[in-house]
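Pinned message: reference record for Replication restart protein PriA
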Amino acid sequence: MLEFSESTYTQRKTLFVEVILPLAISRNYTYRVPFEMNNAVAVGKRVVVQFGKSKLYTAVVAAITEHAPKKYEAKYIIEILDDNPVVTEGQLKFWSWLSEYYMCNEGEVMNAALPSALKLASETKVMLNKDFEYDKASLNDKEYLITEALSIQPELTISDIVKLLGQKTVLPILKTLFEKNIVNISEEVSERYKPRRRTYITINPAYHNQDSLRELFAILEKRAPKQADAVLAYIKLSRQQKIVSKNELIEESGSGESSIKSLIEKEVFFAEDRNVSRLGHDDSEAINEFTLSAAQQLALEEVNRSFGDKDVVLLHGITSSGKTQIYIRLIEQMVATGKQVLYLLPEIALTTHIIERLRMYFGSDIGVYHSRFNDNERVEVWQKVLNNEYKVVLGARSSVFLPFSDLGLIIVDEEHETSYKQYDPAPRYNARDAAIYLANMHQGKVLLGSATPSFETYYNARVHKYGLVNLSERFGGVQLPTIEVVSISEELKRKTMQSHFTSVLMADMALALEAKEQVILFQNRRGYAPVLMCRVCAYTPKCINCDVSLTYHKHSGKLHCHYCGYKEDSPSICPACGSTHLEYKGFGTEKVEDELSVLLPDVKLARMDLDTTRSRNSLQIILNNLEEKKIDILVGTQMVAKGLDFADVTVIGIINADSLLKYPDYRANERSYQMLAQVSGRAGRRDKQGKVVIQTYDPNHRVIKQVIENDYLDLYLTEMEERKSFKYPPYYRIINLDIKHKNAEVLYNQAEYLANELRKHFGDRVIGPEPPLINRIRNYYIKSIMLKFERDTISIVKAKAIVRDVITQFQTTKLSKGSIVQPDVDPY
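Predicted structure (tokens):
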């Protein structure tokens, strides 16, 4: 990589840039830099380039060189978008590692890493701003041509505008129109982040004197009473808060915008436009007054001691042991040294819940980053991290992509959670593992926290690769909840079941509600009924695109596919035999909620699953309502298992534990234990001991007993023997290859060929091809090949290189036509 000083440019040099394009291409492309841009080009800046016949893309400069590509003639870059780099060299190194480790392309990593507003393509849509009036005479010819075209056709893509003007360099013109507020660029691809502006009002210092203010009121009350109201409202607001916005003043006074405008013209008020954050927090003072218990203080000291010789430490603390307070003290220590901290959480549900607690301690020093933010909000966080304005970032898995400059600590809370793994699209990365590499790059530390650690993490701690700190008592001496296992079979025999609820659960809920306490019910399936079946011929409606039965959702009255989104009306007559005897089998959260509303009509119910939390603030509203006791019973999927902390939740009901325990996966027992223990941990988190009711057809199942006894170690030792025998992680590494094709017969031949080619190198380490549990999704049939590699005796780097070569060789054959091959490293 070259560095250029100003003196270098006294001679005319031809520069080339290697760029990362947001495409799944196997190598980076090289472009030529126009001489007049030599001084402006830099690693990490975004440039606009043409790729293919006519498409434009935003690319990131990865390297600068004076060497032209040998195999093709380099095209010129069209434009440089940034004054300063938006991607750091450290990030580029991180992207490169991710693409190598997870066997994907750097363009796919770039697509996952950059907020959409920092990317641009030919398909970017441009529209007129209908709320803004402009003077056509002020436009130049090209601007006028674009606005006239947009008045005829409501949307144009950048490709359309390139054709319209007959030139490639249209972005500067669009940028000018955008900044003049004449056009809008669709948010997901707008090429320039636009700050939010707000008008703030201050009163003329001449009226700080009581006499002059009295004189002003005397005049305004006679001539302009509405303006007098506005001045009064300003004085009231200014006593309550430091700054007063124009909108707040209008709302408080009821005077209307014209009154405020008149007072500004009279210079009674001064108006100032300022950039404001979209992130919904103010600069409130941080509050950090809390005291650690003796056990927490000891754990904190042990963590700090472990960081002396270990880069990664596992904090194994039971539910409600106060791990978050230890995190806060560690963050304080790190921020005091001037370094940045990343606090990773597996779910947005946790992010919204915990952020309020952390803001009490860190005020505006903390930023939040997750997928529920709109694109402009994401760019704002990106820029603040880049400028080192945020010392602490709290976020979901995508937060590892932010442009940290001096990262001292990464906390991975609930490190066992599968939500840290991205399954689709590439990169199929695990944020926990990526965080460990990222911290190592910055010479920082990683704290992994969990009450039920993943077996891989616990194994690494037991072999002393990671430090291990145990926290085995609940904060404040609160006891673990009592757990009662109830046999559904027995209750069905005795006819004591009410719908899907055993008599034990109904009685415990009644006691809790009578005591003004709250209940959480867990059912790990959303929707109303998983299967609609004809009682006569056993016909079941299936998705037209996927090999799955459709789930009935009562709120929409339709059958839904949870894989591709397909919907159809629920039939009243069997399409196969014409029978009217159609029955709903099984039940999801929607049905649990519906039947509870009949059994307990006076109870305030709410549901928390993917269907009820789609909109931007819906999740926060549910959590707020639960905290404010506007909800008596919350029904939810696994969302309710993850870190929720509410004082008055004393009863947890697990409606059907068997749906977890009977899953065909080598991790089923580990995952079941984690889920049951985590859900149970939501109960009795303050001064009241909680109660957990587990409903099951198999009350003697080993995992249920281990949950009751809180015996994680017994579970770990038992399962690890099986892992070793059957060659599973952590003793072996796994790479999955999914081969997809729209024709099942062609796919069979492709998968067999690929598996046989891999066997030439790896022998019986290659398993399959086999159809996965669901062997057709979105009209693609799927075959899976699993590769198992010994952790200690084979180089995974060399193995991946061979797998890449075999896939590339396969893709050069005619047989591969129409196929998609998706590698997934560490798939589980």
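Pinned by admin. Summary line: Confidence is low (pLDDT under 50) at residues 1-10, 187-195, 277-287.
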